[in-house]
Specification:
Layout (H helix, E strand, L loop, with lengths): L1 E3 L2 E3 L2 E8 L4 E9 L5 E10 L6 E9 L3 H19 L15 H4 E5 L5 E5 L4 E3 H7 L9
Antiparallel strand pairs: 1-2, 3-4, 4-5, 5-6, 7-8, 8-9
Length: about 140
Amino acid sequence: MTYENNMPKSESLFSKRIKAGKRRTYFFDIRTTKGNDYFITITESRKKITQNGFERHKIFLYKEDFNKFLKALEEAVNYVKTELLPDFNFDAYSHESEELSENQDSFSTNSGENINTTNDGKIESENNARSRNSIDDVEKW
């Protein structure tokens, strides 16, 4: 367990990274509570233009709110797609084949080791993936 601002921070059991543009990345992490329950953190990390570093915003989502959150998110996205921008091609912005983080599913084990599975089913460690492809470092915390 690591500490941030003198508060214990639970380790991530699962992590998914979505690179969104040049300066913005989203992280979806599953963590445990002190009572061995689970929650999701959604983190937006943006690189600051004028300074070195990152600006972060987090949402903590607990299991009792999963269905309500997902329903509201789907309704909001569908409203934009069908009512506000029905002629917009949202699929044109799916750059899944261009980024390592979006070509692979990635997860962290309980020991903190990051494991990646590629689209063709191969499994590789994060160190091998980094040496194979150079990607921008993004600070999540």
